[in-house]
Write a structure and sequence with these properties.
This protein is an alpha/beta fold. It has one domain: Rossmann fold (3-Layer(aba) Sandwich), CATH 3.40.50. Helix content is 18%, strand content 16%. The strands form four sheets. The protein has a ten-stranded mixed sheet with strand order 1-4-5-7-6-10-11-12-14-13, with helices on both faces. A two-stranded antiparallel sheet has the order 2-3. A hairpin with a 5-residue loop joins strand 2 and strand 3. Helix 3 packs across helix 5. The longest helix has 15 residues. The radius of gyration is 19 Å and the shape is globular.
């Protein structure tokens, strides 16, 4: 692992700054391309740069038209093509060497949407719509991506657009709702403690009080159990082991606040890998320099030079000792000199939101410009 604290490669000197970054600044999620600082509790938010995510709170069920494989998500039901039931009886399954047994006899994109308390009646906080995706037309990765939204209290959690991109790569994908509206500025010099409590539902910080049913870790298990009931053919239960998430087969990822929280989770659980988009930001916080349970060469970060938080991201990459020097991906191809500190200056109206799929992320025709970057970071084969 490179032992360097340098945060500026030659190509990035103009974009880097030695100015201290306010640790209380953590961009909230927004619909479209705007963002706002997270210094106090907020009441509403959706996802950064994702114009494909809805804010509907309808609890009615629906199914797709027979000819569509990409219909809008249903609430509490599986979205299928030409079949509104899911069964494994008499079907073909595809299993990884040691992975989920997935029914691929009727290949299609499956999308789901359900409220947190539909999956777990004990849930009381952050009760937005949770999303999930699985595309059985793609070669399966046999791994789950848990994707965390930014700061705020979204009515729909995560990014449908980003989830579909990942599902097309062969991942199972879920977007849990979780408590992220406490305002990191209220956590003082222990933002990591607030984030860890939001993850575990165990007391780590006096400012917040998050019980286990509202923790990220419990939400992951309850989502997978609910998805198994909705769609047994997806073998979602494979990603549960002894009542806990099977972290060794799970990629933890997120944007902004969710990126920083993903980093904390990777520090405290041995996950398959950590993918941080437009984050982490928690400048000068102790958790950034801790000893991670996930090897540091399994962490990736991606930041845009047009993001006001960009210098803070670079500093956090350095504090965490991510492999390599900052590498500009524009016009380059993987593996980006094996750097895990990836940078872009691609044209966009919202640098912060552009690092995830959605409205602010640049496209070349119908293809996202950053798809090769995402494939490299998430480890898509």
């Amino acid at each position: 692992m490179p032992r360097t604290r340098s945060i500026c490669a030659a190509a990035l000197l103009a974009a880097c700054s030695s100015k201290a970054v306010d640790t209380a600044t953590d961009t909230t999620t927004t619909t479209g391309s705007s963002s706002a600082p997270d210094t106090t509790d907020t009441s509403t938010a959706t996802t950064e740069g994702d114009d494909s995510t809805t804010t509907s709170t309808s609890s009615t069920s629906s199914s797709s038209a027979p000819t569509s494989t990409t219909a809008a998500p249903t609430t509490g039901t599986v979205d299928t093509t030409g079949d509104d039931t899911a069964t494994t009886t008499g079907t073909t399954t595809e299993a990884m060497p040691s992975g989920p047994n997935v029914d691929v006899s009727d290949p299609q994109l499956y999308e789901f949407s359900f409220k947190a308390d539909e999956a777990d009646p004990a849930a009381a906080l952050a009760l937005g719509n949770q999303l999930a995706e699985l595309d059985t037309t793609a070669p399966l990765q046999g791994r789950l991506v848990v994707y965390l939204h930014g700061a705020g209290a979204p009515t729909t959690c995560g990014s449908q657009a980003h989830g579909v991109v990942l599902a097309r790569m062969g991942f199972h994908v879920i977007h849990p709702c979780y408590v992220s509206d406490y305002g990191v500025g209220n956590c003082g010099d222990d933002i990591g403690g607030c984030r860890l409590e939001a993850f575990e539902g165990v007391d780590h910080h006096e400012f917040i009080d998050i019980p286990p049913p509202d923790s990220i870790e419990t939400r992951v298990v309850k989502m997978l159990e609910h998805l198994q009931a909705l769609h047994p053919g997806g073998d979602w239960q494979y990603f549960i082991e002894d009542g806990k998430p099977r972290w060794s087969e799970i990629v933890i990822s997120g944007i902004s606040h969710g990126a920083s929280s993903s980093g904390v989770i990777g520090m405290n659980r041995a996950v398959e890998r950590v993918v941080m988009l437009s984050g982490p930001l928690d400048s000068d916080q102790a958790w950034l320099k801790g000893d991670p349970l996930t090897p540091i060469d399994r962490f990736w970060g991606f930041t845009h030079t047009g993001d006001d938080q960009h210098p803070g991201h670079l500093q956090s990459f350095a504090d965490m000792m991510l492999p390599g020097e900052p590498f500009v991906v524009d016009g380059a191809a993987p593996p980006y000199m094996d750097s895990h500190r990836l940078v872009t200056s691609a044209a966009t109206g919202d640098g912060h939101g552009s690092t995830q799929a959605g409205g602010a992320s640049p496209k070349d025709g119908d293809v996202y410009v950053f798809e090769p970057v995402w494939r490299a970071m998430y480890g898509a084969d």
